[in-house]
Amino acid sequence: MSNKTGFICDESYFWHDTGNGALFLRSGGWVESDVHSENPATKRRVKNLLERTGFIQQLITISPRMATREEIEYNHGPAYIDQVKKLSDQMGGDAGAAAIVGTGSYEIALLSAGGALTGLDDVMKGQVDNVYVLSRPPGHHAEKDLGMGFCLFNNVAIAAHYARKKYGLKRILIIDWDVHHGNGIESAFLNDPEVCYISLHQEFSFPPDRGQAEVIGEGEGKGYNINIPLPAGTGNAGYLHALNHVAVPIAEQFQPELILIAAGQDPSAFDPLARMMVTAEGFRKMTALVKQMAEQLCQGRLVVCHEGGYSAAYVPVCTMRVIEELSGQKSQMVEDPFQLGIEALPTEVLLAHQEEAVKRVQQIHADYWKFD
């Protein structure tokens, strides 16, 4: 069954300038100048592949609007917003650890957050069934008063606040499968029972002091913050096991009115900033599971916002599979062109320590949710 799937992107997203660097660092000292990991190519090539295959014609292309200052303040403090604007107006700088602001990045970040809001509006109004927002810069690490990890404004958190203020929603589910923990989203809703946040991430990664399974929320929000730290080397089987045995039962009990996905394609087998083994087919299966969840629980209302993913070669293939599954249609890209490099990996094998990691999360949340 095909869906009306929206696709949101803007050329401005590719003009956010992180400068020269290597991996997650700026160049200088002992770091020779190279291409910074958070560069335009990983996302531009997604759009290129959609156009090259002609698949973009199967989507409803939507232009994003800029978020307003008031909307950004749903999640961020005025002084921090002023800091980002000042850096943007004055040749750039750092808004936090690895949170690079280039010239003009403030306006682009407003447009990035606005892409999430535009997509949410179109889903809520029924103009599309679901939507993929290919925005940049990403957002899930950004705290109220601090940028972090390539993120300036927290696109998904702002969208969740917006959904409650504009549409009066009381139960919003956020699923974050970016390989790094979405500390900014966690911080935004740690005390909030109206937003249930489920993060699947590589344990002991970034930020190094966040994402522990024991962090379950505070006050009225206890039980609504679910961290699933997975061991390095987890592939398709482990991610799907975590979704099926933690996310699905929680969603069925929470009964969300809207699902947001913080979709980082950096758990992929080829990502330079992680050590996971999810394949393009794995991302397709993960999308299928969450899409089915949305169709069963919240009239199919699903907004997918692009976060991380730093393999310029493989992110487009993985993201194509996500968008194909959202739309219910297939592109001309029948085979994964990188299959030769992954076919020997144990990505479809659920290892005992991966299963144990999921079981531990169930035990920690047993007082709040029922699991099979």
Molecular structure report:
There is one protein chain. With 372 residues, this protein is α/β, with parallel strands linked by helices. The chain has a single domain (5-364), classed as Arginase, Chain A (3-Layer(aba) Sandwich), CATH 3.40.800. Helix content is 35%, strand content 15%. The protein is built from ten helices and 15 strands. The strands form four sheets. Strands 5-1-9-15-14-11-12-13 form an eight-stranded parallel beta sheet, sandwiched between helices. It has a three-stranded antiparallel beta sheet with strand order 3-2-4, with no helix packed on it. A two-stranded antiparallel ribbon has the order 6-8. The two termini are 30 Å apart. 56% of the residues are buried.
Topology, pairings included?
Layout: E1 5-8, E2 20-22, E3 25-26, E4 34-35, H1 41-53, E5 60-62, H2 69-72, H3 78-89, E6 93-94, E7 96-97, E8 100-101, H4 105-124, E9 130-133, E10 147-148, H5 155-167, E11 172-176, H6 183-189, E12 195-202, E13 225-230, H7 236-254, E14 258-263, H8 280-297, E15 302-306, H9 315-327, H10 352-364
Parallel strand pairs: 1-5, 1-9, 7-10, 9-15, 11-12, 11-14, 12-13, 14-15
Antiparallel strand pairs: 2-3, 2-4, 6-8
Helix pairs in contact: 1-9, 4-5, 7-8, 7-10, 8-9
